[in-house]
Write a structure and sequence with these properties.
Order of helices and strands: HEEEHEHEEHHHHEEEEH
Strand content: 15-25%
Oligomer: single chain
Strand order of the largest sheet: 1-2-3-5-4
Structural class: alpha+beta
Shape: globular
Number of helices: 8
Distance between the termini: 33 Å
Length: 240
């Protein structure tokens, strides 16, 4: 997944550090996209890339993910890792990828870091999780860079249709209740709200919690499913 000599040459071309590069896999080991810590002398970066090809259409789009984050930052949402380089040349690693600045913090999966032992601390983190989502939904989607991600029609309708299609493709047994849920959702779509940025996978496991103040979220990660759409999608997913 990583060819260190090729990554080194790419970083050189973008003025990112100097000297030999070492890379190691970080993250929760999910099977979607892959994240690597790059160390180069005193400098540290993070590289994000998709799995090996072939890839399903409209999935694992690293260039889109990087551009969306840059547009969101420019629209006023600051809790993001800085995108420092994007590679569209598949000759480098066989797939497009991007490089972010390194953030020192915690991604919460199956254990809590020091500082979150008390219920009061965990409540404070939960409240900041909500505040962070409010900030995402407040980003100005009328700005040209973000408006370019908008699509005509109903975001909720597209989501219901897409997940119903995915169920038909991926199911391994018949579960009539799932088909019924899809039909009911399609028949009872709510009237759309004003568009906002939608993360699409908004949960605590996609947050970077501050190393020095673990009740605060420093960055929101994993924007693969990010879009312009109905903010209730994020609220509902977070509650679920």
């Amino acid at each position: 997944l990583i060819v260190e000599e090729s990554v080194e040459a790419f970083l050189d071309a973008h003025g990112l550090g100097s000297g030999p590069v070492t890379a190691r896999r970080i993250g929760d080991g999910g099977g979607s996209n892959f994240t690597f810590l790059l160390e180069r002398g005193a400098d540290r970066f993070v590289l994000r890339r998709p799995p090996r090809p072939p890839l399903p259409p409209s999935t694992h789009d690293m260039v889109r993910e990087a551009r969306l984050q840059t547009a969101i930052r420019e629209a006023g949402f600051a809790r993001l890792a800085e995108i420092v380089a994007v590679c569209e040349d598949e000759a480098v690693l066989g797939v497009p990828f991007y490089v972010m600045g390194f953030l020192d913090g915690h991604v919460l999966t199956d254990e809590l870091p020091s500082g979150l032992e008390t219920s009061a601390a965990r409540r404070a983190l939960g409240l900041d999780l909500v505040d962070t989502l409010v900030e995402i939904h407040a980003a100005d989607v009328r700005r040209p860079a973000l408006a370019a991600f908008a699509r005509p029609g109903s975001y909720a309708e597209r989501q219901v249709r897409r997940f119903s299609q995915l169920w038909q493709i991926n199911k391994t047994r018949e579960l009539p209740a799932v088909d019924e849920v899809g039909r009911r959702l399609a028949a009872e779509l709510p009237a759309p709200l004003e568009d906002t940025v939608v993360h699409g996978d908004y949960r605590l496991g996609n947050m970077m919690v501050s190393a020095s103040a673990p009740t605060r979220i420093d960055a929101v990660l994993d924007w693969e499913m990010g879009a312009i759409g109905d903010p209730r999608a994020d609220v509902g997913y977070l509650l679920a």
